[in-house]
Amino acid sequence: MSTPPPSTPKLFSRTTWREWKQVAEILRLETVGGMLLLAGAVVALVWANSPWSESYTAMREFTFGPEALHLNLDLSHWAADGLLAIFFFVVGLELKREFVAGELRDPRRAAVPVAAAVGGVVLPAAIYVVINLGDSSALSGWAIPTATDIAFAVAVLAVVGRFLPSALRMFLLTLAVVDDLIAITIIAVFYTDDLAVGPLLLALAPLAVFTLLVQRRVRSWWLLIPLGLLTWGLVHASGVHATVAGVLLGFAVPALRREGEAVGLAEHFEHRWRPVSAGVAVPIFALFAAGVAFGGWSGLVEALTDPVALGIVAGLVLGKAFGIFGTTYLMGRFTKAELDRDIAWVDVLGLSLLAGIGFTVSLLVGDLAFGTGGDRDELVKIAVLCGSLLAALLATVILRLRNRVYRRIHEEETRDEDRDGIPDVYQEPSPADGAPGRPESP
Description:
CATH superfamily: Na+/H+ antiporter like domain
Largest sheet: 2 strands, parallel
CATH topology: Na+/H+ antiporter like fold
């Protein structure tokens, strides 16, 4: 009996029903979070450009906290260092789950989104550096245009691309997860100026106890939250950005299910904390971070002609788009993989442009690079807002061109003629490998 020829590898092939259900729930929460994030940013912009702008500045600069613990911070820093630690804790949980039980556990499936994420970081940084080569002080902002704000991107999708195929949505989410990992690594390595080794070593003690408890499946909030706060406080005192503590705590939580557990502990914590992150932490951060006075149309034009602003806008719009698209295309040529029959390269370009929405982490990196309250702080905010808006508009134009195709694919992916709760397409033979689909319980 002759051996059948090997099937051609596919890019953006459909995943399993169980994995898609998990992703759909994450995207639903991120959509709501993205809308709240947008609302926070709009309120900040209107307030900062209103006759009451002084009250906005006074609110941001209101300071409180114990000086002895290095926590006498203004509200904008409490939002960036404190609330965003919750956001990065969820990122850590998501990373752990993806690497252990999700898309990134299979090196073959992870290769394309990982490479695309790296390309989407390297090219924007390179563009920024080239534009600002003549100013050494400006080069510290090289990482500002490298981040993707998944909540903002998904919120845009909810308006203009709600029928986007599931494989493309999973690619965007997986890419954003890897992007977040790169971003937190950049923050920890390149934006730590004065390192105090003592507090950093002390932080290992509560982190170790936290790890031991979660490995034993302890879920008691009155034990875990104080340990998390102590770890966060010590990391903050060490000079390392406190959001790194959130990622480390998230990594410590086990992702695999034990016998008798419906979901892994990482997934359980993610369900509990993602609404807090998306619905509270990130929108409040946006309220404190996005307020910038444009100074009228002439002031906006003048700001955007500055090399720092040009580097950020070009990095977000051009660097992200061509970095992700180009790397994905090269990976397809290198592996001799073909696009899935429902996907076209223009879809990948639209998604790559959408990844140029770099709001939350870009503003955070800008604050770390140039400080709060300076001239370049205002430039960074204007550039991030304008670059993200331009990327969103270009992505909208491209994705809307294919909306009729997306509607057809959406109907196929949601059809459930036998009414068993599982769309029929997830129970049919996979066109990628010719093997029968394996129905999974809802």
